[in-house]
Amino acid sequence: MVFGKKGILLVNLGTPNSPSRGDVYVYLRQFLTDPRVIDIPWVQRQVLVNGIIAPFRSGSSAKLYQELWTPEGSPIKIYGERVAAGLQALLGDEYAVALGMRYQNPSIESALKQLIDQQVSEITVFPMFPQYASASTGSVHDEVMRLLRKEQVIPNVRFINSYYDHDPMIEIFADNARKFDIASYDHILFSFHGLPQRQMIKADACNHCLKTANCCETVSIKNQFCYSAQSHGTAYALAKKLNLTRDRYTISFQSRLGRDPWIQPYTIEVLEKLAKQGAKRLLVFSAAFVADCLETIVEISSEYQEEFHKMGGETVDLVPSLNDDPRWIKVIADMVR
Ligand SMILES: C=CC1=C(C)c2cc3[nH]c(cc4nc(cc5[nH]c(cc1n2)c(C)c5CCC(=O)O)C(CCC(=O)O)=C4C)c(C)c3C=C
Ligand SMILES: [Fe+2]
Ligand SMILES: [Fe+2]
Question: Hey, what domains does the chain have and what are their CATH numbers?
Fold first, then answer.
């Protein structure tokens, strides 16, 4: 017989405590010294992050966060809190729901404590990343295991790895897109958060990734956890729902950091190519994120819009993410149950 509530730990990436340069600096240091994010030897990582990236990037990054910030705070955190509250209400007393952020607050540690204090019989870890990457989902699971390792009693634990083509989730993204006049756009862009190619190769157990031109564009037994293949899987599922033929859309990757090669094509280069071909109106999905955040609200809706305009294009419209949509909360409830 098992007693106690069932614990649900929702985890998203995190955000600074405020958009001040100091808080952004602290956030970037914690984020980028994670060995799963900047996966180079410890000494080089400390020098690179503490000596170069955090001091130099915190100023420009803080300006972007100031543009993003709302009176209630950072969108990724606000949506996380609303989803956690909605999920708790939907699942009822049999469950205890807690929200943790991988970086900054509320921390995963505080969320786990909340669950353990309620003597939960089990914990389901639900990373808010549809596609698996060691730098996102892997890091969340790593942190949960590091914290649980200190406990005398470790309850049953379930880790959700990915849900990149989960049909009820795809349906909400697609439905959000149907609010736009899809036929009126010259092209549809599925822009995912990028990842260093090096990390794809490290995650590849079958010597498969990046070996041929299209090997990371379809999920198979050989690459079922490949971030690129899963991202393509999300895009294909959306395209199918919306009856988009292959010539109507492009899959690309944004937010590259540093000079090493990341997954290609890069969104900025695709924008350039489309503008040269005469495209004026683009509809963009950002389905690596289940909540709108800096990467969608500022990078796509503001920066890419401005760049595309300079290139001769006109409109970059963003399909809103799942955010705190009650249908999304119901989808999570069904997945964790
Ligand atoms: C979708 C999941 C994510 C993966 C995979 C990921 C990898 C990754 N990110 C960086 C560097 C940065 N990312 C930044 C912001 C950011 N990243 C994600 C998600 C993933 N990152 C989100 C949801 C956000 C936005 C958070 C918010 O507050 O709204 C930033 C900070 C902003 C900036 O200065 O540009 C950096 C830096 C790397 C290096 C990486 C993989 C190696
Ligand atoms: Fe990121
Ligand atoms: Fe791959």
Answer: 6-163+326-336 (3.40.50.1400), 167-318 (3.40.50.1400)
